[in-house]
Write a structure and sequence with these properties.
Length: about 350
């Protein structure tokens, strides 16, 4: 079979498995109610953990770990919202949910701008102008630089923006991308960071630098500390840093590590969904998967059947994996780390 025929068969069989699951468990058909319930539960628990940490009932490490997990669930919920899976007919509730999951995950892009990049990603996954995946290090050789900037959407993208924009221009010149689309992608990539994402990253940079200076002063008495005004701002922002930013730093590193290595890049045949992603279930990825709600297990399924909720994908993943494996989708291809995420071996 051609890749189009195999893709069509995978989609049909996975869709049928979803229909069978919903027939067996009719509760799953109440998608809006389930989505809203997950949203309220995760927001409530994360704020509760923040309060318990603030009154010294739970330690900082448990706050960071639990909230990183909860924010990982909210990321999946945001992804569903970007695909209009909840309250499509009720813009008020839809946008309140979208705004709230962004505020609780401020290290990521504005979701209304991200929607443009994400829908483009589905159409052109693995290409030079797949801005969303390239923004999280996909396609780069594995070096210390890539590791350090895996979670960083500000400095990391500042370092790669020149090459990315150059590639986009070349794609336009070669007729592979419309100029209007290229212009829109650039605007969304830049303005999606303003202001919340940039401010949140800068706050973390100063927080990290302050910790480093304190350590160096204790060990080597270097005699340099931040001015009192910066110290005061960091002290005032301490609850935001611990309740929201540090859990999101952990979550975002884990998500970007998983997503950038389950997506292929650079030599993906146009329109060939089978070459776009793999399934990552290998045991050593579990510590990363926990904080992105096992994204590596299910995101490849999403590329074949886009309009289904993340929780249904998880419940039905075993059947979907059987179908995908039978039709040649890759599982646990660790060679992607050596090949800078290319689908084929580099000659």
């Amino acid at each position: 079979m051609t890749h189009q025929e195999r893709t069509s068969k995978i989609r049909k069989e996975i869709t049928e498995s979803y229909k069978a699951l919903k027939s067996k468990y009719p509760l799953l058909k109440y998608q809006n109610a389930i989505g809203l319930s997950i949203f309220l539960l995760c927001v409530g628990l994360s704020l509760l953990m923040g309060y318990l940490w603030y009154i010294d009932v739970v330690p900082a490490w448990s706050l960071i770990v639990v909230n990183a997990f909860l924010f990982g669930v909210l990321h999946e919920l945001e992804h569903d919202l970007i695909h209009y899976m909840y309250f499509k007919g009720n813009k008020a509730i839809h946008n309140v949910m979208l705004f709230s999951v962004w505020i609780l995950r401020p290290l990521t892009l504005n979701p209304w701008f991200r929607r443009t990049l994400h829908l483009h990603h589905h159409r052109f996954s693995g290409t030079l102008h797949d801005v969303e995946e390239r923004g999280v290090t996909n396609g780069e050789k594995w070096t210390l630089k890539r590791l350090l900037f895996t979670p960083d959407l500000v400095l990391g993208n500042l370092l790669r923006v020149r090459g990315l924009f150059s590639d986009i221009k070349r794609e336009v010149d070669n007729g592979n991308l419309k100029f209007e689309t290229a212009h829109k992608l650039k605007l969304c990539g830049v303005f999606g960071l303003i202001p919340l994402t940039i401010v949140s990253h800068i706050l973390l940079y100063f927080f990290g630098a302050d910790l480093l200076l304190d350590f160096l002063n204790r060990k080597f008495d270097i005699g340099f500390v931040f001015p009192i005004v910066i110290k005061s701002i960091l002290s005032w922002c301490n609850p935001i840093i611990y309740i929201i930013l540090l859990p999101n730093l952990l979550r975002q590193f884990c998500l970007h590590f998983i997503t950038s290595n389950l997506h292929y890049f650079g030599d993906v045949e146009k329109g060939n969904v089978i070459e776009q992603t793999q399934i990552l279930t290998v045991w050593w990825t579990y510590p990363f998967q926990i904080f992105c709600f096992f994204f590596g297990w299910t995101h490849g399924i999403h590329h074949f059947v886009v309009n289904e909720s993340f929780y249904v994908r998880h419940i039905a993943r075993k059947k979907a994996h059987e179908i995908m494996k039978a039709h040649g989708v890759r599982f646990n291809d660790m060679g992607t780390f050596r090949r800078a995420n290319r689908f084929n071996e580099i000659s």
